[in-house]
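Why does residue order matter? Because the sequence determines the fold. Keep that principle in mind as you read this record.
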Amino acid sequence: MEADEPILLAQQQLTGLVEGEAPNTTDFAGVYGSKLVPIARVLADLRTLASRVLAFAQDDDLARWGASDLVRRCNSYREAPLTTYRGHREAHTRGSWVAPTDAAATGLALTAALDSLNGSEPDAVIDRITWLTDRLQELGESAAHCDIDKWSTEISPDLVTIVLGAVHRSQGRRAVRLHYRTTTGRPQRPAKGLDVPRARAQKVPASLWDNWTLQMMPVNAGGNLRWATVQQALAISVLQVGVWINLPQAQQLLGTDLGRKTVSRTLETLHAHEASVEILRAVTMLADVLDQSGSPIDYARRREVFGRRREFIYPEDWAGIRRQAGPVHDAQAYVQQANRWIYQRLTGNPIRQFPAPPCPDPLDTPKKYPQFIFELNPVEIDGLTRVARRLLSTEGIVEPLTWEPDIPHAVAVDVRLPGVVRESIHHSRVHDVILEGALSASAVARKLKTSPAHVRCILDRQPFNRSSPFTQRNEKWRQLYLDGLSATQISQVTGGSSTSILKELRRMGVEIRSRAPERVYGHLIQEVIHRYSHLGESLQNIADTTGMCRATVRNILVREGVPRRPCGRRPQPT
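Structure:
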């Protein structure tokens, strides 16, 4: 052999380990970290990994560590039947308890094992043993944590977690990657029991914070991803990092009543995205931030104190806030929306969990809550914030009303998340689009090419004061309309959409003129009437003949007062 053959280099390294005077080593930092590790543990892991090489490696794998003649010698040994203690010739099976009696098999197996453990970082080691996990998957071998433990009674927890890291990377199993923390740092065995997730649930709202969700929620994701559902699913995932806890247990700790299938489907959609590994890495790092730095808010206590409460602000108090802010919307109709806003700030729960009032108000529509928060101005938000802080003080809770952990530099720079950063759009641009006549967050989002959730998050922190600029704008619209201009003409002169102009004019009490019927097909009116009334043709036949659509033909007949024929099959002439 040449002096630089892999098998000879492995023999030299192994001889140094066995004959060295020091009982410990730091040569395998990728597996054991920078701490001193007993050489006996390293040798035990080498034996375990070498036995897996003999059991599962193929010729292409073995060719990386030895020449073709060595591979043939090794395969001859592997294919020979094994004689049992009963004296029978049985099919060859190999476990860690079988010491190879062939030099080529021993050399190749230990060379492969040493090469796998020699990485200086966990990711490097995982890359080196990916071939083994691929062979396990091809053969249908189970690679759960309990099965890897059975490879040998001597296997160390460090090697188990590294192998599982490779398994989870190749198989893409979301939950176990969170349990074992295999997407970032060093994989670890999950902690048992509910002590860790219960402590973490006190620091996490049932709907994850806006900034984190914005960056982790894909902008263009396949499947049906809803903002509120993604917030709850990610909060549940935070509780699963590094611990054995399933979805129902995590949901119970957070107090969320989202359907289990909905949570699973949302998480699978996130996992199917090309940036799924980055999302899981960000979730793991968020869990680390909470474990290390904690939270100034005890969300578990907030959910217990305020979670079942139906009323946070009285109608007269909300009406007073509305009088200060200006009549943008009716105070009585939106008092329940104000209750929902305070409920969400106090508990961190999704709006869907807000308890229904015992006597529902016909003016209250929960689906209009997004529009309500879109139209809130700074005066209203300040008033609602004062009410919420007063409620905290009444319960003896000395905490900030809201809080959100900062996104670490490692996440902002090193992790390529598929979402958007809230600051990517300045709040002044959102305000300008609203001033142009945008009536909803969706309309603003279409204009700025972003998501409605992004717009709402911006307005939540930088609300738009509609009082002064809207009053001047609306008065100009009113004057132009009274001067005889149509809504379309006004939009061309001042900007904004004709729909928003008409809505504001109606709210100001301006009587809207009826639109003049379009006479694009005026020269065909008599022909349409003749064909329908005298020739008895159907609407579709008339539309095909004249080049109009069926709805236009029907509208012409209605506008001209032509009596309609009864529906059904007409009698055939005799």
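Strands lie at 24-25, 37-38, 82-83, 89-90.
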